[in-house]
TrEMBL record:
This is DUF7670 domain-containing protein. The keyword Acetylation does not apply. InterPro entries: DUF7670. The chain crosses the membrane at residues 12-32, 44-62, 69-88, 94-117. It holds the Pfam family DUF7670. Residues 1-125 form the DUF7670 domain. Keywords: Membrane, Transmembrane, Transmembrane helix. It comes from Seonamhaeicola sediminis. It comes from the Bacteria.
Length: 128
C-alpha cells in the first residue's frame, strides 16, 4: 500500500518535469541567424515564459497537491481548444492538431488527475 502511494505521489511530479522540459525544448525555435545574439536571447527568454509559469505551478502542486492538481487539469483542458485551433489554422489537419494536443495538453491533464488522486490517497492514509 505504501509503495503505491509513493508511486502515485512521485509519478505526477516526474511526468510534469518531463512535460515542462518538452515545452522548453520547443522554445529553441526562437534562434534565428538573421537576428543579433541579444535579440535571439530575448526571444528565447520570451518563449520560455510558459515554462517558467509551469515551474511555478509545479512548485505549488508539490506543496499543495489538490490545488496543483486542479490548476494542471484546468491548464490542460483550458488550453486544448486554443492549441487545436491554432494548429488547425497552421496545417489544416484535424488529426495533426489532435496529435499536437496529445503531446502538449494531455500530459498536464494526466498530471493534474494524478496530483488529485495522490492527495486523496494521502488523506485516506495519513501515516504517509
Amino acid at each position: 500500500m505504501k509503495t503505491s502511494i509513493k508511486v502515485i505521489s512521485w509519478l505526477p511530479r516526474i511526468i510534469c518535469i518531463f512535460a515542462i522540459v518538452f515545452i522548453s525544448i520547443l522554445a529553441l525555435d526562437a534562434f534565428n541567424p538573421e537576428r543579433t545574439l541579444l535579440q535571439q536571447i530575448g526571444d528565447f527568454l520570451m518563449h520560455l515564459i510558459p515554462s517558467f509559469v509551469l515551474i511555478i505551478f509545479l512548485i505549488v502542486a508539490w506543496k499543495r497537491e489538490l490545488i496543483g492538481g486542479i490548476i494542471f487539469t484546468i491548464i490542460g483542458l483550458g488550453f486544448s481548444p486554443f492549441i487545436f485551433m491554432h494548429n488547425y489554422r497552421m496545417n489544416q489537419s484535424i488529426w495533426m492538431s489532435l496529435l499536437i494536443i496529445l503531446l502538449i495538453a494531455i500530459p498536464f491533464v494526466i498530471v493534474g488527475i494524478l496530483f488529485i488522486v495522490s492527495h486523496k490517497m494521502k488523506k485516506k492514509n495519513p501515516s504517509f
